[in-house]
Design goal:
By secondary structure, this protein is mainly beta. About 0% of the residues lie in helices and about 45% in strands. The protein contains no helices and 48 strands. The strands form 19 sheets. Strands 13, 14, 15, 16, 17 and 24 form a 6-stranded antiparallel β-sheet that branches. A hairpin with a 2-residue loop joins strand 40 (about 415-420) and strand 41. The two termini are about 25 Å apart. The relative contact order is 0.09. It is found in: Cell projection, Stereocilium; Cytoplasm, Cytoskeleton. GO terms for molecular function: actin filament binding; protein-macromolecule adaptor activity. This is Fascin.
Length: about 500
Amino acid sequence: MPTNGLHQVLKIQFGLVNDTDRYLTAESFGFKVNASAPSLKRKQMWVLEPDPGEGTAVLFRSSHLGRYLSAEGDGRVACEAERPGRDCRFLVLPQPDGRWVLQSEPHGRFFGGTEDQLSCFATAITAAELWTVHLAIHPQAHLLSVSRRRYAHLCPREDEMAADSDTPWGVDALVTLIFQNRQYCLKSCDSRYLRSDGRLVWEPEARACYTLEFKAGKLAFKDCDGRYLAPVGPAGTLRAGRNTRPGKDELFDLEESHPQVVLVAANHRYVSVRQGVNVSANQDEELDHETFLMQIDQETKKCTFYSSTGGYWTLVTHGGIQATATQVSENTMFEMEWRGRRVALKASNGRYVCMKKNGQLAAISDFVAGEDEEFTLKLINRPILVLRGLDGFVCHRRGSNQLDTNRSVYDVFHLSFSDGAYQIRGRGGGFWHTGSHGSVCSDGERAEDFLFEFRERGRLAIRARSGKYLRGGASGLLRADADAPAGVALWEY
């Protein structure tokens, strides 16, 4: 399978939370560091890098400044170094409860403190030197076993998760990381949690919670008994093995989960490549041949459709559309026009894709004349949804039916689909609905339709029945009053 950006390992960014629930922050002014922030924003994001030399030391680089954390011999700490020097080298010492201790490698002292009183001069480990790792990436991804080079996915018949798939195709390959009580749970696409014995359970019990560890840029998941998740046996069943130290078998990559979609044409049949290379609307059910991985180019905002047979949709002679391209090119790019509950696609020849009488798709229409140029597009690999805006994640506001948009923790929402629109259900089964003056509430008894418009790579706009777009903003509340799908009205999903 060609890569073309299809399989991109996520750069692991994270926050470090001290014992008083404040985040390690790198300030631009004076390149000082403190632990004063109550939530995870840009200044609180860090990247772990291996030390260029040999050994087990690591480097902490501020995502915000691009500079490295350092500790001098007298305990003074800063985030000023543009290039990592000797004082930038730290040892990460995982503790039994999952928290980290950071020890200066050259000086042997421990890093900790509160507020703006941080130092790396402690000779013993106390509560002030303990840090919790909080991932800053979007928590919905694909999980790739490093040793087997296979993707984890839900196996409904066996009632387990297994790392035995060549490609992360379909909804079963979606994994959601849930941050809870300083640890992480792995949630399958059907909202169950992976327990360390391999069973799937409905509640995040103790044996379904894991401590994250990093090794050479990879992730390991340690259970409450100090053992690590790994693919076990010929089927690659995910469960904790015998090892108490992470080797190659216990390491995983997180990969970006691109949207996978199905399209329905005016004849109410699914667009498919089941009967050959021609892309045609001729199937009555949605399976792998009717599922397409959709990527949006960040510069042009045009999209590509990649099929399960290993080819991109491409424009061929006489306006035909075939799933035969192995590389992204101008002819594989399509411009999307959002038309309410439907979408129209314009090919590189400037013409719209339409359905011919035999069901085949072709870019031969000069304008959208009617239903033949319109398609229903359905996102299939987000049955559960986590939304993140410019200021943070969407989460229920405590003691209210409204939704916050600036949180460092997130809620998981459930999606359903009907006739080109989505219904969003939250905690307690209440539906999202719009109220007076653009407010968005989460306690509706009846479902309200929202339209999803995939506008940028990894980001969508959500349109309410009023025609306005959902946005975050200074108030920190989710509102449906944006006129354009841009900026605070775009959501990472």
